[in-house]
Fold:
Amino acid sequence: MSNRREFIGTSLTAIAGLTLLPAINSFANPGSQYKSGGIAKPKLRFAIASDIHYAQQGTPFEENTANLIKWLNDDHTKNHLDMVILNGDLVHNRPDLLPEIKTKYLDKLNVPYHTIPGNHDFADAAIWKKVFSYEDNYTVEHGDIAFVLANTADVKGGYVCPNNSFIKASLDKFADKKVVFVILHIPPIKWIKGDGFLDCPETLELLHNYPNVKAAFHGHDHALDGVRYTGNRFPHFFDSHIGGDWGTAYKGYRIVEIDDDYKIYTYQVNASQNPILNSNRL
Structure:
């Protein structure tokens, strides 16, 4: 798709201690391997995937979900993952199936995982807590690295700006952390008129005003698999999609690695290998 041109390339783009690496082709054949994209032994290495759309009619949603679990478990076996983040739209308009996707698939991940609702999950704090034992706005800590996860949708699938009071309180609490990431299914800015995102200037101001907030991660737009910027080059990363009936021709997820000096490396994995991504800038 044409809008992928600005996202996949071979040259490294360094900003604020963060390096964007090119897409990695992996898992093309049984037993295939690739080396960790940034460093041999990261301080923290995690995967982030989104948009499973379990139960969307006309799609092989069971196969897609099973593939995701296999890909991530394989990645963990070969390279080690400290955790997985599933960034929204786990199910497709069927919140009643959240327990099913959790027990049948997600609980088979061999690493800890964290989830956040998307607009197709039709979920609020009560629904999320009943299924996952935590609410739809929460934080995760790994030593000097922290994550702020916030809901961007309501129970009817409407887009809503995240709870900025929660985000500010969390960022204040984590002011002494070396690295903070913010996880939002729907991005807080409409880069293009009518692009299906949100306009949340207060959220953007928060992201821009805390120096240790290094990036935001989003799902929602299945056709995006790279980075866009706000403010003074603040990065917003996307990770393609796992399910659904539209988006990039391949299914994939994003890897993030942090080294001992808190430098950050991130790259997109073309897990389905359909099609093969070349490593040339377009």
User: Anything to note?
Assistant: The chain is about 20% helix and 25% strand. Helices lie at 61-79, 98-104, 125-132, 164-173, 201-209. Residues 1-16, 27-34, 278-282 have pLDDT under 50 and may be disordered.
